Every structure is written in structure tokens, then in C-alpha cells.
Amino acid sequence: MRVIAERAARGELPIDVRAVISDRADARGLETAASMGIPVASLSPKDFPDRPSFDSALARLIDQYQPGLLILAGFMRILGGAFTSHFNGRTLNIHPSLLPKYRGLHTHRRALEAGDAHHGVSVHFVTEELDGGPVVIQARVPVLPDDTEATLIERVQHQEHSIYPEVVGWFASGRLVCRDGEAWLDGSPLKNPVIREASIT
Ligand code: NHR
């Protein structure tokens, strides 16, 4: 979130960040955004009787800003079908695995436990199916013999800061769209995600 907002503020991305919204009032991202002069808001699930009512209040809050794109960044609440169809084709998420491997949580740990030689991160359009929407780009990183969860997270996060702004730029400039459940880049459907092969950093 910070990296995207900073690039936008420097004029390196053709977007204006209309708001940063969290389900946690104490989220660090809200402080960061507020310090940059970006409007912030939060909405606690505890104040709602069930998931659908939280989702619909969140959708109404977001709609007030009339966003062309929703960018999930560390957002950890599963969103229901009513929410995802309302924002269909204009919601992106970044997920720390080489999808379709390791949907859900604790992806770095699972990759280490499986002994994978490579791990990575995917940017995908959000659909009702958790971490199951069309994948736009993936960055692959090596898993090294001495890796711990922390060192692997750091290596993957470095790539996150590169590919997420890149995809946001594609969407904002009209090069990337989601149509009929598929991601299209430069007028062609992406049969496979774009792959960035990262060396060790
Ligand atoms: N919602 C939908 N419908 N589709 C997606 O693709 C979504 C989504 C909501 C969030 C981010 C995702 C990730 O990339 C994301 C993608 C939360 C969980 C989860 O299990 C899983 C994946 C992701 C986000 N959340 C638990 C829940 O009950 C809470 C876990 C916790 O608080 O630690 O909501 O990581």
C-alpha cells in the first residue's frame, strides 16, 4: 500500500489514491496514508452481526469514494459474493504464492515445509473464489537452503513492491481489463500469467 501510494504521489502512477480503508482501526497503513494526506477510514467487523452486513457496509463506504479500482493489500477478511460481484473486474489482490499453489494463509511456511525450490507472489483479480480469480502476473523467487519464514517473506515482499505497482499501472492506463472471468492485457486474453523471474536479493 505504501509503495503504491508513494509512486502515485510522485506522479509515477496515473492514479489518485482516493482512500485507504481497513477493517482494523489500528492498522499501520492508516497512519501511513493519513501522514501522506490520503483520506482514511476503518470499519470493524465486530460492529456487525454477520459477514454479509459487514460486507455491504464496507461496499457502501467504498462507493462514497467512487473508485475505479480497489487494491487489496494485506486485507485479511474473506469477502462474500455480493461484495465481489459489486466490484467485479475492478478489484486486485496480491497473494504470496505461485497460484494455484497455496491459496489461503501461511503460504511461506507451507512452501518451506513442502521443500519447494521456488516460491513467489501473484497478483490476481478478486472473484468470490478465495485466491481463485484470474492471475495477471507472478514473480518467482528461489527458496534457499538456509531460509526461514522471515527471510523468505522478505525476498517475496521485495518482488511484491515491484509487480503490484506495475499491474496497477497497467489497469490505470487501460492496458489491463478483466472480462468474462479472464484477464486481458493489451487486447489479448492472458492464457498464462506474465512471469518475472527474480534472482536472489
Ligand atoms: N475475498 C474473496 N472473495 N476472494 C479473494 O480472492 C480474496 C478475498 C478476501 C481477501 C486476500 C487473501 C490473501 O491473498 C483476499 C482474497 C484472508 C484469508 C482468510 O482466511 C484468506 C486469504 C486472503 C485473505 N481470512 C480469515 C477470515 O475468516 C481470517 C484470517 C485472519 O484474520 O488471520 O476472513 O491472503
How is this structure best described in words?
The chain has a single domain, classed as 3-Layer(aba) Sandwich (Rossmann fold), CATH 3.40.50.170. The chain is built from six helices and ten strands. It has a five-stranded mixed β-sheet, covered by helices on one side. The chain is of the alpha/beta class and 201 residues long. The mean pLDDT is 97. The structure holds ligand NHR. Ligand NHR binds next to strand 4.
CATH class descriptor: Alpha Beta
CATH topology-level name = Rossmann fold
Runs in which pLDDT lies below 50 for 5 or more consecutive residues are: none
Q: Based on Cα principal axes, name the global outline.
A: globular
Major sheet description: 5 strands, mixed
How many domain regions?
1
Helix fraction, binned, reads 25-40%
Written as H for each helix and E for each strand, in order along the chain, the element string is HEHEHEHEHEEHEEEE
- Terminus-to-terminus distance: 21 Å
Helix/sheet category: alpha/beta
| Rg value | 17 Å
Which strands sit side by side, in order, in the main sheet? 3-4-5-6-10
Bound molecules: ligand NHR
Number of strands: 10
User: How many alpha or pi helices?
Assistant: 6
Mean pLDDT: 97
CATH architectural category: 3-Layer(aba) Sandwich
Beta-strand proportion: 15-25%
Name of the CATH superfamily: Formyl transferase, N-terminal domain
